[in-house]
Design brief:
The protein is α+β, with helices and mostly antiparallel strands and 66 residues long. The protein has one domain. The protein is 52% helix and 21% strand. The chain has a four-stranded antiparallel beta sheet. β2 and β3 form a beta hairpin. It is rod-shaped and about 60 Å long. The protein starts with a strand and ends with a helix.
Length: 66
């Protein structure tokens, strides 16, 4: 499985139970990377939901102006 560094986008290499970024040198344990990725996914999902709500509201508001 290929992992990507959340900081710089570099490739992560598995070494002795640690994931090391080949580009920036950051190290993660698997569970740390999983927790970080889960937090990033939830923040991205939250941003997408907020943007979707704004678009839906704008569409509703403009449809009432006819």
């Amino acid at each position: 499985m290929s992992y990507i560094c959340p900081e710089c986008g570099g490739n992560l290499k598995l070494t002795r139970g640690m994931l090391i970024c080949l580009k920036c040198g950051l190290t993660f344990k698997r569970y740390e990377l999983k927790e970080l990725m889960d937090r990033l996914k939830s923040s991205i999902t939250e941003e997408n939901n907020e943007e979707r709500r704004k678009k839906e509201y704008l569409k509703w508001w403009l449809s009432n102006k006819k």
